[in-house]
Amino acid sequence: MVPVLNQYGCNATGDCHGGGIRGTYELSPIDALDLAFDFEQTSLQVLPFDLDGSPILTKPLREDSGGEPHGFEPFVTKSDSGYVAIRNWVHGGESQ
Predict the structure, then answer these.
(1) What sign does the dihedral 20-41-76-3 (CA atoms) show?
(2) pLDDT band at 85, cuts 50/70/90?
(3) Residue 95: is its pLDDT beyond 60?
(4) Distance, CA of 92 to CA of 77 (rounded, Å)
């Protein structure tokens, strides 16, 4: 199973999440996936005091749908299946 963000092109390719060049969210390279590392890094993008305001939800979401400025916005709306999957994970499996 491919992680949701990898399905949408969010990975360690180039300088996007590949070594801390841009921001604080680093992922393992596609050719050397380390799911434990990726899980740890992704967990750091969750704000326990504001789950829906967590960067893991706001950064990949288009600004006019409530997202933050980011160079790549794979989720157009909060109803996109990838966004919903990540939101459910952030909320511990709770549906919207």
Answers:
(1) positive
(2) very high
(3) no
(4) 21
Reading the block at residue 80, the tokens are 């996109």
> What is the structure's pLDDT at 20?
53
94 alpha-carbon distance from chain centroid: 18
**What's the predicted TM-score (pTM) here?**
0.81
DSSP sequence for the chain: ---HHHHTT-SSSTTSSSSSSSSS-----GGG--HHHHHHHHHTT--TT-GGG-HHHHTTB-GGGT----S---BSSTTSHHHHHHHHHHTTT---
Structure tokens at 21: 């060049």
Q: Which of 25, 50, 51 is nearest to 38 (CA)?
A: 25
- Single out the residue of 43, 42, 71, 69 nearest to residue 58, CA to CA: 69
